[in-house]
Specification:
Radius of gyration: 18 Å
Strand order of the largest sheet: 5-9-8-6-10
Largest sheet: 5 strands, mixed, barrel
Number of domains: 1
Strand content: 15-25%
Order of helices and strands: HEHEEEHEEHEHEHEHEH
Structural class: alpha/beta
Bound molecules: adenine
Distance between the termini: 41 Å
Helix content: 25-40%
CATH topology: Rossmann fold
Number of helices: 8
CATH architecture: 3-Layer(aba) Sandwich
């Protein structure tokens, strides 16, 4: 029997085709830490939204404004209500991405942030990477197929022209909910062939994939994971300077995408 004719599915396919061929209009930038977000808020002269469109009481902060032809929204998950620190990690970033996409209907997601880098894979402090694929390294489920679900490997939006035209390094990203790296995480990161590790990327990619929004990931290296210095010390020492490098790279990407459609990136 022929499958029933489903007009709604056909329309969706047409819509997504035209979406990748019309100029990008609304950009959603997901950033976990305030120190990473503020240089970009200043660069694009964004203002903090006053009447939140999000549920009452959530700490999420939206900075928005127009830059050239783009409607830019930076979403920061805000400070933990009890502890007062940035709400880093996969749980808050996936919730924030979901709610932001539902509300803002962006054409493109940019997940920007800092990351640990592996010098064995060519990463140095201050390098900025455009990520080619993302996976998790702390979701170990040693049962066939669940193991692959745990790793959650996803390709990022293909951006050959950004890579060709901007001076960014390219590498794979591995995500987990810890800043440090235990031996099990280390072997998963190695299996993921990752050059950089962070605490949000694969979670943002999961939601972007669910909701079919193209996503790119820009990660700047604050600490060398396979180096001699303790991670926390090196991270805190370099955070402000590397946030400035991140701002420059994201601004370059924003300038590049202005007036272009997804298929031209
Ligand atoms: N963000 C910055 N440095 C990191 C690291 N070493 N691991 C996870 N996230 C990071």
């Amino acid at each position: 029997m022929a499958p029933p004719h489903d007009d709604s599915k056909l329309e969706t396919a047409d819509e997504s085709l035209s979406a990748s061929n019309r100029p990008i209009s609304t950009v959603l930038i997901i950033i976990a830490m305030q120190t990473e977000a503020l240089p970009l808020v200043n660069k694009f002269q964004l203002s903090q939204a006053v009447d939140s469109v999000f549920p009452k009481g959530v700490p999420w902060v939206r900075y928005h404004g127009t830059y050239k032809d783009l409607n830019i929204n930076i979403m920061w998950p805000g400070k933990d209500a009890v502890l007062g620190v940035d709400s880093v990690g996969t749980v808050s970033s996936s919730l924030l991405t979901y709610a932001s996409v539902q509300t803002l209907q962006p054409d493109l997601i940019i997940n920007a942030g800092t990351a640990g880098g592996f010098k064995a894979k060519g990463a140095c402090i201050g390098d900025v990477f455009l990520v080619s694929e993302v996976a998790f390294h702390d979701r170990r489920i040693p049962i066939p197929v669940f193991d692959l679900y745990g790793v959650g490997l996803r390709q990022t939006c293909s951006t050959p022209n950004i890579l060709k035209d901007l001076n960014l390094k390219v590498g794979k990203l591995s995500t987990g909910d810890s800043l440090d790296m235990c031996p099990q995480d280390e072997s998963s990161i190695f299996a993921n062939d990752a050059t950089v590790k962070d605490m949000e990327g694969a979670a943002v990619a999961y939601v972007a994939d669910l909701l079919k929004v193209p996503a790119v990931f820009i990660k700047a290296v604050t600490d060398v994971v396979d180096g001699d210095k303790p991670t926390t010390e090196e991270f805190l020492e370099n955070l402000a300077a590397v946030a400035a490098a991140l701002e420059q790279a994201v601004a370059q990407v924003i300038d590049y995408i202005n007036g272009k459609c997804i298929a031209e990136l």
